Amino acid sequence: MITLRPAQERGHAHHGWLDSFHTFSFASYYDPQHMGFSDLRVINEDRIAAGAGFPNHSHQDMEIVTYVLDGALEHQDSMGNRTIIRPGEVQRMSAGTGVTHSEYNPSPTDAVHLLQIWILPEQLHLQPSYEQKFYPPAEKQGQLRLIASQDGREETVTVHQDMSLYAATLAPDQAVTYEIPSDRRVWLQVVRGAVTVNQSPLQAGDGAGISKERSLQIVGQQPAEFLLFDLQ
User: Fold this and answer.
1) Does 138-231 match 10-135 at the fold level?
2) Residue 20: pLDDT band by 50, 70, 90 thresholds?
3) Is Ribosomal protein among this UniProt entry's keywords (predicted)?
4) What per-residue confidence (pLDDT) applies to 114?
5) In this predicted structure, what is the pLDDT of residue 178?
6) What is the pLDDT of residue 24?
7) Angle at CA 8, nearest 5°, toward 142 and 219?
8) What average pLDDT does the structure give for the chain?
9) Sheet harboring 18-22: ordered strands across?
């Protein structure tokens, strides 16, 4: 079964410096029909204006993954990390017992476009931790590249939950197949272009919750990029 979550039905908040679309309930956007999917709690598609950003704020007991699409994002946190996240890089921060951080767009001219993803951890009150890794575009072209996992295999960032996160880019008519174990569910989020998933069309910003399917065939209709979450 494939349940579509169209881009135009997402929550939306525009604060001038921040233009944000919420796949699931977040902040002042509340939709009891879309509170998350398995342990996936938040997918926010954010555009942050040049020179703007989130001032210091706190998180606790959440796995936070940041995936930059265009531009650059400056991160600073109470663990002593100060980094720039660019396209191709994946950041994972485990908030655990509590962490404070800020996120800014350091460019004086260009917006930064990113996805911020929250995943519920398997255990509360973990020690806060941080990772950031780069995945060359060639490793995602025409294939699923594992970028986050519970055990850190294949040089992925480690997320403290039973899940695996893949990224892929597809040219038109290029396809990948994903076999789904019988006890797993999948969320697919299209971030650029357009694809079909088992012949169901999805465009940029669309998501799909998938259960009771044995396999997925994902075909590029336009040059496309997507994330695939394998979840309990």
Assistant:
1) yes
2) very high
3) no
4) 98
5) 98
6) 98
7) 20
8) 98
9) 11-14, 18-22, 40-48, 112-119, 63-70, 89-94, 129-134
- Which residue ranges are tagged as binding site? 57, 59, 101, 103
What one-character DSSP code corresponds to residue 26? B
Give the residue from 220, 224, 164 showing the smallest Cα distance to 191.
224
Helix-then-strand count for the chain, H and E: 0, 22
* Domain 10-135 class in CATH: mainly beta
- Tell me how far apart the alpha carbons of residues 164 and 156 are, in angstroms, rounded to a whole number: 10
Beta-carbon contacts of residue 19 (< 8 Å; ≥ 6 apart) = 13, 46, 47
Residue with tokens 């399917």: 213
Do 190 and 204 contact (CB within 8 A), yes or no?
yes
104-to-30, 51, 85 alpha-carbon distances in Å = 26, 7, 10
Sequence spans of domains, the chain: 10-135, 138-231
Cα gap 218→51, rounded to integer Å: 37
Place of tokens 């994903």: 178
Evaluate the CA torsion angle 66, 81, 85, 135 in order and state its sign: negative
Q: Is the pTM of this model over 0.90?
A: yes
Of 6 and 181, the one with more pLDDT? 6
Binned at pLDDT 50, 70 and 90, residue 200 comes out as very high
Q: What is the CATH number of domain 138-231?
A: 2.60.120.10
Burial of 214 (0-12, 13-18, 19+ CB in 10 A): exposed
